[in-house]
Amino acid sequence: MFARLAIAGLLCLLPLAGAQARTVYECLRDNRLSLSTAPEPGSKCKPKRVNDRKAKVKNFWGDQGPVRGNLYTTRIDGKQVYSTRNIKGWKEVAEPVKVRAPRDSWAHEGLGELGAPRLDVFAVQFRAAAKKTGVEDAWLRAIAHAESDFNPRALSPKGAQGVMQLMPALARAYGVADPYQSAQCIDGAARHIRDLMRRYKGDLVLVAAAYNAGTGAVDRYGGVPPYAETEDYVDKVQTLYASYRAALQPKRSGKG
Question: Is 113 in the active site?
């Protein structure tokens, strides 16, 4: 199956001219698809009509999915043409584009910020959940730090609840009656993370991405979904995880 690409930034370069729809070209070459404002030389291209209003929505390509990428330009028959394909002789005109997650996606930025490890918050609950599930204490704390900054009453714009920011459907699936009760929330999240680790064979990058955007998005893209929220979240959790692992290491006496 060919990898499908869509770059929202390309649409901003297309002239409106008062029309209700615009044309972009889906071009195939060397088993790789791209988008272009005109047929690409050497590629097999199909025109796609895009409604102006829908074109303003970054995920207008639907299940074809947007990914990050650069834009390249040249002049053909006196007309400026833009493409998402890196074609020899074409000029790069844009930095990598990050797209926002669709509104119905679970993907979110997280309410916590990077900062020093906090070992005094819900320490008993984290240790209990780690012992019960086998999920590392440092990983649970990194998720809680990124998700809510350890606020047990946190409520995200997407509807995620509690210190581990469980979505209501996920809380129900893991039998968490009250996500705002810290012990329940941490226990449910730990069991969910344990299942994600089994699903993704211990790949913590995919575990973090799935915790953020859902397993459906990770499986659909075959990796970290190309959403700005998810990519930033994964980076944040990895950084926090390293900090918590270091902070939780037993202190050495220096004798010997």
Answer: no
